[in-house]
Amino acid sequence: MMYPLKFAPIFKQTIWGGDKINQLKRISNGLPSVGESWEISAVEGAESVVVNGAYKGYTLPRLIKLLKEDLVGSDNYARFGNKFPLLVKFIDAHDDLSVQVHPDDSLAMKRHHSLGKTEMWYVLQADVDAKLIAGFSRKINPQQYREMVADGSFTDALQSYHVKEGDVYYIPAGRVHSLGKGTMVVEVQETSDVTYRIFDYNRKDKDGNTRTLHVAQAADAIDFEDIAGEAKIGYQIVDNEPIELVSSPRFITSVYHLTETIECDYTDLDSFVILVCTAGSCQIVDGETVETMLAGESILLAATTHEIKLVPDGEATLLEVYT
Known about the structure:
single chain; 323 residues; alpha+beta; Jelly Rolls; 2 domains; six-stranded antiparallel sheet
């Protein structure tokens, strides 16, 4: 049996970041303009470090090399070797993110020797007028795409959604998207840091520079058949039951709203499990081991984990992610 693993968050300051992640994590005098907190990451140069138990101080890649399939599962280890397949992060869009797209696995491997980037968003908090972009609102072709980007009208062809807490959006590779101002989300994604920016609202950084755009590269990555109506995921919460939000070849994500102790049996699951606490707090009880998880924290359970108990402190909401 392996102790549930906690990791130190990796904070990313961005041109569009705010202070909601510091608030979520109860951090006073934190970094300004934190756009992202990478919770569980094996991206080169941003590897998560264990902060508890016998493996305290180990990076996630080092842990996989040591524990192999016992940590990630036999199928995952056969597919990905010593590379961890998922990245989980919090995102605080204090300002609009760039309009962007991610390549699929094939194109990303060809161009960047990387996985592609299919992702999902679970909305933690949204201002009253918050919106996001996901997919096209009408059919356009590659030539129209180039013309509309050039004349500044590209966003006219994109589908926008009003956003509220608890909303779920699925963003497969190839879907044009952007988080809007006033939105904070949990993002579950493939392990990739490849993003093609198409439009960035003509913003300049503190040094007066505009950010690099990737209009030509994005044209090859965009799914031009991705018309509105597929991005937002409908679901109904049932207390103390796992409610599946996304089931894809890359990851499966469910949500729990806990009001009482429940048991989770992972005996037959050949995968690691990531738990993300989005509200409240709870205890993870694994045999005689007890680990407390607060809102804004994440835990990694090894593939050798069998049965755990989730014990909420009153109420708690968790995301459960595995491959």
